[in-house]
Amino acid sequence: GESVGLHLPTLSVQEGDNSIINCAYSNSASDYFIWYKQESGKGPQFIIDIRSNMDKRQGQRVTVLLNKTVKHLSLQIAATQPGDSAVYFCAEGTGNQFYFGTGTSLTVIP
Amino acid sequence: DVKVTQSSRYLVKRTGEKVFLECVQDMDHENMFWYRQDPGLGLRLIYFSYDVKMKEKGDIPEGYSVSREKKERFSLILESASTNQTSMYLCASSFGGSSRIQYFGPGTRLLVL
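^ inputs. structure came back:
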């Protein structure tokens, strides 16, 4: 199967600072990438997606960057808030099937 | 808003029991998926379905079966539960075609004793 890995399993940031969560993927044929947020006791929630023909996509307070050369994906969260504390997963896919990373736990320090 | 519901949030079963996990989505999605989530292993695909009565094996189908008799409902069946099937089970659905975002249910935490 595919290997989707995260550089850091945990990340702590001060409230108001920006957060960067990284993800490495292994399948150069993957053409679609999604970031999910999972709060304790809940299912993963869609945050933002990006197709392989793009390098950057912005949402509300979040930006996803894709570097296909090194097969790297990152999620940037601006002005991190306590409600951003959660586990964040990246997923890479071709067609309708995805492979998920193990997740990075983000803790926001008030 | 897309809503994916799962029949139980917590379930405790005994080894050898037959277990049914139900998932329902209300957005007329074509695709439905069952994953299990274990610490350090992330989400692993068990089975998926692209249409009614259609199923495809994922990465870890052993010990599981599925049923999709209606478009909105996708059931995961553990024919004879074992302790190594203790896990969080997540159902997801997606519209299909160019819309590939998967929407997840809240999960069912299954404990097999």
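The mean pLDDT of chain B is 94. The interface with chain A takes residues 4, 31, 35, 40-43, 45, 48, 50, 58-59, 90, 92, 94, 96, 100-107 of chain B (CB under 8 Å).
thumbs up if we can close this ticket
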